[in-house]
Amino acid sequence: MSDKVRVGIVGLGRSGWNIHAKLLGGLSDRYQIVAVSDLDPGRREEAKERFGCNTYETIDGLLEDPAVELVIVASPSHLHAEHSIMALKAGKAVVCEKPMAATLEEADRMIETARETGNLLTVFQNRRYSQDFVKVKEIIDSGILGRIVLVRIAWHGFGRRWDWQTLKKFGGGSLRNTGPHLIDQALQLFGPAEPEIFCDMRRTLTLGDAEDHVKVVMKAIDAEAPLIDIEITSACAYPQDNWLVMGTQGGLTGTTRHLRWKYYKPEELPPRQLETAPMPDRSYNRDEITWYEEEWSLEEDQGPGQAGFYLDLYETLRHGAPLAITPESARRVMWVIEQCMKQCPV
Is beta strand 70-73 parallel, antiparallel or unpaired with respect to 5-10? Predict the structure, then answer.
């Protein structure tokens, strides 16, 4: 008997087709797409030709298909909770696209349904596996930058959007479309403490009624954690680097494709003590620091990238490995989003 995980994909849009189907197509030794559902008959036919799978107009038919073991919910954002709960109750394991849900209450119902049914629920927070983030976290965790003071994550662009993801009624807006990626990364770097949230959201160039400019600042209340500064905007004509990390022994900057960082070795600095007497030459006192500099590029990275999500999930489904992305960790993202929505009902 084949040990492949048998997959049904709900929704064949940008995410379902261009991300999930593409990733699984490259992992054909572990996964087999056996069914899809989409309202568009052309999309269904395209999937049938490519994968030889069963096709259904609605999720109901897909959930009744006994061949389907794992359901990928890649339907529009406002349907994520409804479709995930339906799939869990139908006895399927579920991968839900981000955002996990439209509200924190919906996310809690999803988690509770997974507990009641005993079926696996995970959320496609795929940016935890992005090579640049993996490298940034590796460098921070190594300690060479010292205590991290600030992490700034920026996704800047300039342009209009006018699709369904710009509309509130479909769960649109930059906070819930792009925000889950950056907020999830930020929470991994922030640690387990509960953050205090500051948020500013605005409509700038979008043709829809949801926000397309978002600023989120996360600050620890009673714990030592870096200040996290997140910017997502469609109104930046001079985009800045995606990453800026400030530490007490160095720093890091760069993009999703290229990173550079420098640090010093504390043992190489001469001992100092606080002095209050005037400097003999009236100058500022400064250390002469020997810097060590390194670089990383995506082209040279041999990591699995976002395919790592499905590699880890396979180990969970087939070999009982711990679930890499728990629904509870994705709930933290939803909690931050809810705090932002309360502060800025755009």
Answer: parallel
Give the residue from 250, 272, 268 showing the smallest Cα distance to 259: 250
pLDDT at 1: 47
| Per-residue pLDDT tens over the stretch 26-65 | 999 999 999 999 999 999 999 999 999 999 999 999 999 9
What is the residue whose two structure tokens read 């040279």?
A: 300
- Cα(40)–Cα(9) distance, rounded to whole angstroms? 14
Domains of the chain and any CATH numbers = 5-124+306-325 (3.40.50.720), 128-305 (3.30.360.10)
* Residue 301 burial (C-beta neighbours within 10 Å; 0-12, 13-18, 19+): middle
- Separation CA 214–CA 197 (nearest Å): 13
Spatial distance between the Cα atoms of 141 and 194, rounded to a whole number of angstroms:
20
Give Cβ neighbours of residue 135 (< 8 Å, ≥ 6 apart): 259, 296, 301
Distances in Å between the Cα of 241 and the Cα atoms of 55, 114, 154, 231 are 43, 39, 7, 11
pLDDT value at residue 115 = 98
Provide the edge-to-edge strand list for the sheet that holds 213-220.
Answer: 195-202, 213-220, 227-233, 148-156, 243-247, 250-254, 258-263, 292-297
In whole angstroms, what is the distance from residue 220 CA to residue 195 CA?
Answer: 5
Residue 62: closest CA among 10, 15, 20: 10
